[in-house]
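Sat 14:20. Reprocessing the chain from the morning session after the first attempt stalled halfway. Input below, unchanged.
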Amino acid sequence: MSFGSTTAEEKTVVLKSTKLYSGIRISFVYTDAAGAAGPFSCLENVAKLVVDVPEYGNNSRRVDLSGNTIALLPLVSQLGATEAQDAASAASVRSTDPITTTGGGTGTSNGFAYFDIPVNKLNLDEDARITINALVQAASDTLEVAFAFLDYPLRQVFFRAYDAVNVASHQQWFPADGVLRGIAIAGYTAGWTQGAANAFAFGTRSTDVTKISLNGEQITTYSNPVLLGAAIDEIVSGGPSGTTTDWMSYNSFGLFKGFPPLTGAQYISIDAAAGTGEYLIFGVMSDA
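Finished this time. Tokens:
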């Protein structure tokens, strides 16, 4: 798949395979005609990415990201891995990186990125489809996207991402035709704009979120949400390493370990100081 227009284009590729596979690796290469290492930081020019696997029916969209939720793509790869060691190499981009000309691939890696997406193909009768909306910075630049099939174990999950703007009190429902397995919440301070440098940044740790609740039940209601601050790091890296790349350094929360095995429609609610910021709400789900 190739993009070479300064106006956003949406393209779909159909992936055919002679063998079942567990995932798809999506690789990006940006070529800057000016030779300045590319004004491309893996996601800066990508407005939408959808991975559709038809045999999963209503849940065929295993990944569906657009706008601000594009920033969650590295986390998709990490949460699709079966253990922390695999999560560390499931994407070339740190999941906490901002989307800028230097973030999401710095120095010699700027202009190159890959992401491993869990798919777990069930049959060879229906082909997977990947849709990407992207552009380039200059008319002579190119963005090439390549795909490879993976055969190492990946989690049997799909993802649902939502953008909650100006949270004061927000309730987010998740589809009833899937089983919610975990929740991640990440605050951001700068919104995303396609093709714009310094467009997106996660917010640093604060105390503006006053309560997080799953289904409004007492056993899964946290009136001191910082207790959930370590959860994403536990899953994707085995725990904090003491650097600013850790999710605990950001205004993020997660509920994964010991997540109650409930079925049917479920919701997460967030209470925060009025007008304090925006949040990405991210659900990890399995098929019912």
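The mean pLDDT is 87.
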